[in-house]
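The instructor's notes for this session suggest beginning with a concrete chain rather than abstract definitions. Hand out the sequence below and ask the class to guess, before any prediction is shown, which regions might be ordered.
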Amino acid sequence: MKKLLITFCTTSIALNLLLSFCLITKNEQYKIKLEKFKSTVTEVKTGEDYKKENIVFLGDSITDWCPFEGLYEDYIPIVNSGKAGYRTFELLPELEDLVYKYNPTKVFILIGTNDLNTHTGKKQLVDNIEKMIKRIKKHRPKCKIYIQSIYPVNRTDDGRIDLEKVSKRENTEIKNVNKKIRELCKKHNVTYINVFKHLTDEQGNLAIKYTKDGLHLIDLGYLKVTTVLTPYVEE
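After discussion, reveal the predicted structure:
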């Protein structure tokens, strides 16, 4: 019995070490890919180029908790205006403090996942994003607006998933809302960025390797998002 227990413990330790090694290796692979991607950008901006710019990222906790300082070059003047827990209607009255005062040349908006937990929120979500677009255009007409798709979720029985946090969110509904957001962007001539498709696994769920609870991202997930957004940040 003692030998069996020792064997079991040894095997468990070995598997955990192997898993940690695989995750670290995967992370390093993505970093290498990101560096290769950045090296292909033909026009490299310098700190001098960015002196008159501010690039605002507006959103909820997924933006608020993003480690921007480790993902983009230090000279890129990114402003993190993410507010954890916020829904679309909560951002609207705070656009002065979160966007306008920075006089941004670009604003990247990722909002709506928290609205999906309430009936009223679902109905107002797209309308509120449209109000944001109109208000930003009015107050900062030279600012380029980029709207990210709402990110996917994972509701599987994997041990990492926290169904209380994922709550009522469903990928089918998220995709339907994203279609409406895409049409809204087309209507107002702003850029829609389909980040959703870059974060899913073969079943269409938020890939386990990118999330810590089925809703929020880990560093590897943020790194993947960065590879998608970098062309728009750098353009």
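Then share the key points. The first strand starts at residue 55 and ends at 59. The first helix runs from residue 2 to 39.
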